[in-house]
Write a structure and sequence with these properties.
With 500 residues, the protein is mainly alpha-helical. The chain is built from 23 helices and no strands.
């Protein structure tokens, strides 16, 4: 239990920065959807370009985050040598990537549909190159158990981004309308840039992070061990394939949508889907927070005898609390929908589908550690590759007929496939006695309550549905407390119950 308490504490710190940061970042969604109308396709451009960025980030880090934790915790390896070798490797490949983009900028931007805005592409490339490099010192902070600095820098990045976005999408446009041609506003703001400001701001904020990570990048001797790198690449390459397949499960629909959608408003429809999906991203926050704490925790416990029972218990709690988050989002959808512009509301029907897919992605992540711990990461590449193939095929077949709703179901199908395969094979290769009956009980209860919430949202006025949904959510919370978190076991409150 002490280990689980340590995991919970680190998850809370990482989660606080992730959830609060993502929530603050949500402020950009109403800003973008208010200033970039659905019909203009501006938010669709942002959705599309950031989908490429997410994929490239996985490729440019090529599994070295997980590899760092694995090799830094090996008895016969020097953690500093592992760290410096990975820094040099990732830094070099990121630089080469950016130079290649500059050399072939015109054909690449034209192929992607941004021939009129090549700056979108080189700015994106430079940002993702820096981000990939910085993933390693951020991983080092996690290895050194410094969640506070990690969280503080992530928060600073987001807050700075929000401030600059407010300036360039709200303040300066208002001042520009009443300014003369010689004013300072006209010199620093150009309304024709539009969505491009989102990319420039991202680059600036990413560059600032380098300054705050100087301590993690200096003060030690850089050593590049070729033999060590070859071993680490053997371990990391399947993880990269796994990561590429995994991120394609999240972004492939947004990348290929403009190419397979039948109609002239592809970016407009993509913008609606992307904006609505943002509301479902609370699951991504929870999963990311759990991952930041869980990855170093798992590898640190790999040699202990009770690790499998700990992993099983952690899985149960992860599922329980993500189901609670799912019910909260669906129960308060009448409030949360105001995070996006009104002309994007038609896309809200994808939210429960995308959230369910994110829960399965989180379960899949929890299941993935069996092949990482036995150094058989090729299994992860296979599972994610098959899941990705299911997603892409589903998109290609159904998007031309059903539009972006098919994207949501394709993600659901892809994650479900990878999750089931990982569990079935894992129980043969590295069996863990997961409490399936308890997990299934919570899933069934959550589904019943979700049906109730859905009907309340349709049949009752807003105040009525909010009140009724609150009661239903509290019912689920009460079941959790009754079965797994009795009040008598809690500090302070438990003293009262123990006296009774």
């Amino acid at each position: 239990m002490a280990n689980l308490r340590s995991l919970a504490k680190d998850t809370a710190i990482y989660g606080l920065s992730s959830i609060i940061g993502r929530f603050l970042n949500y402020l950009l969604v109403p800003l973008y959807t208010a200033k970039l109308s659905a019909a203009s396709g501006g938010y669709g451009v942002i959705t599309n370009v950031y989908a490429y960025t997410a994929l490239l980030l996985v490729i440019l880090t090529y599994g070295m985050e997980t590899t760092f934790f694995r090799y830094a915790n090996k008895e016969n390896e020097n953690p500093n040598k592992v760290y410096s070798t990975i820094l040099i490797s990732v830094g070099s490949t990121s630089l080469i990537f950016f130079l290649l983009i500059l050399i072939f900028l015109t054909p690449i931007s034209t192929m992607m549909g941004y021939g009129d805005h090549p700056s979108y592409i080189w700015v994106m490339a430079l940002t993702v190159a820096i981000d990939a490099f910085l993933c390693i010192p951020f991983a080092y902070l996690r290895y050194k158990k410094r969640p506070v600095k990690f969280a503080a820098l992530k928060m600073l990045n987001i807050i700075l981004s929000i401030v600059l976005n407010l300036v360039f999408f709200l303040v300066l446009p208002a001042l520009y309308d009443g300014a003369d041609n010689s004013s300072l506003v006209n010199k620093i703001y150009d309304p024709t840039v539009g969505a491009g400001y989102a990319f420039y701001i991202n680059l600036f904020c990413t560059g600032i992070m380098v300054l705050f990570l100087i301590k993690e990048l200096t003060g030690f001797k850089y050593v590049f061990d070729r033999a060590l790198l070859r071993k680490m690449l053997d371990y990391s390459m399947p993880i990269m394939i796994l990561g590429v397949a995994g991120i394609l499960n999240q972004t492939a629909d947004k990348i290929i949508f403009p190419y397979i959608y039948i109609g002239q408003d592809a970016h407009a429809q993509l913008g609606i889907y992307g904006a609505a999906s943002k509301i479902a991203m609370i699951m991504a926050m929870i999963t990311q927070a759990f991952r930041y704490a869980y990855e170093p925790f798992v590898f640190g416990k790999a040699k202990e005898k009770d690790n499998r029972q700990t992993y099983a218990t952690a899985m149960k709690y992860f599922v329980v609390f993500t189901l609670l988050a799912f019910l909260v989002v669906m129960g308060y959808m009448d409030i949360l929908r105001h995070l996006i512009g009104r002309d994007y509301w038609e896309g809200l029907r994808v939210v429960p589908i995308v959230m369910a897919a994110e829960i399965m992605m989180g379960i899949y992540f929890n299941l993935s550690f069996w092949y990482k711990l036995i150094d058989k990461t090729i299994w992860g590449a296979c599972f994610s590759g098959i899941g990705c193939a299911v997603l892409i095929i589903t998109n290609v077949i159904f998007v031309p007929h059903y539009g972006y709703i098919a994207c949501a179901w394709a993600g659901f199908a892809g994650y479900a496939t990878a999750m089931i395969l990982s569990y079935l094979v894992g129980q043969k290769k590295y069996p863990i006695n997961y409490p399936l009956r308890e997990i299934l009980f919570y899933v069934i209860i959550a589904l019943i309550l979700f049906v109730g919430i859905t009907y309340c949202n349709k049949l009752l006025p807003i105040w009525g549905s909010l009140c009724t949904n609150t009661i239903l959510i509290l019912v689920f919370a009460a079941i959790i407390v009754k079965r797994d978190f009795p009040l008598s076991g809690l500090p302070i409150i438990g003293r009262y119950f123990n006296k009774q």
